[in-house]
Amino acid sequence: KLISCLNNVTMRSVMRDEKLETQFQKNGYVTIPFLTEKEVADLKQGFFDLLPKSGGNITATDTGMSCDITYDFTFIDKNPEFKQAVFNKITSYFEPHVQKWLADYRPIIANYIRKNTDTGEVPLHQNWAFVDERKCTSVSIWCPLVDSSPENGTLQIVPGSHKRYGEVRGPMIPWELEGIKHEIIDKYLVPMNIKAGQAVVLDDSVVHY
User: Fold this and answer.
1) Where do runs of H (alpha helix) occur along 13-79?
2) Residues 63, 59: Cα–Cα separation, whole Å
């Protein structure tokens, strides 16, 4: 997840490439080539090398929430040192590619997500609002380390749904699309069928699953 902001109401470009910027503004996301084959392998191994430092995920019981988390999500690990090590590992590989494709962004969150077979559904949602989205655009870079499709739980997006709903978003704020989420999943999602090392740059306000 990356952030960039100006202190005025003029929105500036997210992508350095003009054609990609047009696509991003229209759909709320773009797909780009990102990591090399070696970088993919290094980051996959990096996850397992760092795993012994994990303190385990924060659970629903820890937070008082009712939903269970059925996937490994390093950002919610209980060990701050592990989270910092993951952040350092991922951003060191991502930085040169971010500088190439995005217009002056800096990282605020970096994490691994691992799903087990037949589990690991991430509910339909929008990412938290980190900025005033009338002035700024925060983005996430989703880069699978394996070839991804609906069969193994790929990212799915509602094109054009960015900056339309939930101006204020966070973990304790009711979501205005909660009541129609199943209809959205059934009718409006576009799966990201991409190879390992490709990336999806998405507006944090776009609806995805």
Assistant:
1) 18-27, 37-50, 60-63
2) 7
